[in-house]
Design a protein that fits this description.
Layout lengths: L9 H11 L2 H12 L1 H9 L5 H16 L6 H14 L1
């Protein structure tokens, strides 16, 4: 389902997990049920927020590298400098 974007099969997979009565997966499925429409859409549509999440991860990495020694002005400069290189 993940690589082939076939989210329409999610309900069948959920039913199979519940039939097998696997404790770890059953609790995972219960969590999926609360946002079933969003999960199905995430497994079906082609677009995603991967590039945005990658950029956020990169900014957090830069911030961690500074060990909290610098404030927002330096963080801003470092983020803009690394963005210019990409």
């Amino acid at each position: 389902m993940l690589t082939t974007l076939q989210g329409q099969h999610l309900l069948g997979w959920i039913a199979a997990v519940r039939a097998d009565d696997l404790p770890g997966l059953t609790s995972f499925v219960n969590g999926l049920k609360s946002g079933l429409n969003a999960v199905t859409a995430g497994l079906t549509v082609r677009w995603n927020s991967g590039p945005v999440e990658g950029r956020v991860n990169h900014i957090k990495m830069i911030k961690r590298q500074m060990f909290g020694r610098a404030g927002l002005p330096l963080l801003r400069k470092r983020v803009l400098l690394t963005a210019a290189r990409r």
